[in-house]
Amino acid sequence: MTLGFLRPAAMALAGFIGVPAAAAQARPTAEQRAEAERRIQAELRAPRPIEAAASLWIDELTWMEVRDLIAAGTTTVIIATGGVEQNGPYLTTGKHNVILRGACEAIARKLGKTLCAPVVAFVPEGNFDPPTGHMRYPGTISLREDTYRQLIEDIATSFKTTGFTEIILIGDSGGNQTGLAAAATNLNAAWGAAAKARYIPEFYQYDKMVAYMNDELGVKEPIDEGYHDSYWITALMMAVDPSSVRYDQRIKAGKASINGVSIADKTKTAALGWKLFEFRANHTVKAIAAARAKG
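Below the sequence we write its predicted structure tokens.
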């Protein structure tokens, strides 16, 4: 089936949005609009022409792959929010976004029938004038609280509009939590029984993960070097992308440690990171199950 109708249909509809001169002649008739809608509906029902990819990330799937997953019962999507901020001299500004690449996928796999939205990289990081918080450091990107909340609400509403019925909201930074909670409240008030937004604050309970690392894995940080960094954060990032902690450069400069713990053994550090991802995923899935039980 050809999809070429979309271009002339779009050109015809241009008359409604202020295109000058020939706009009046380009306006579609009722019959033309009905025909365009029939063709769109036919496209929406068209069979997928190729084998589906296996990714859990919506932005790595075609719209047909997403459609077919929804039809098969994958109606839960996770919106994970990270940030762009200063993280000491070794970690990239997208620290939280790197971590969420591993965390969201781990949670989605354990939940089943779940996809991950593209990580929301932009969140409140401080005021602009005068600059506060991370906004005092170059490279930081901040949003106003209302902008952030509205961004989350619009993303979630997009998913609800296209067939998802459960939208899970998680944030990997402290400044993300208030906006997520407010967005979930607003969305549930607007949606009623049509869909459910679930804010899961337990995802950000890093203290429980650190206790697990200390007590169960036997790994402790003997000192605090005072950076916006830690061994466990570095391990999580190394499991996903060693370049994000500047591993090679630190080895060369003799700086391959943080808070008194070496990261020189890349395999060992990444393996610990995956164990921490497993703990966070299990902890978060339990919290989601409890939220679902509450209805």
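Residues 58-294 form a domain with the Rossmann fold fold (CATH 3.40.50.10310).
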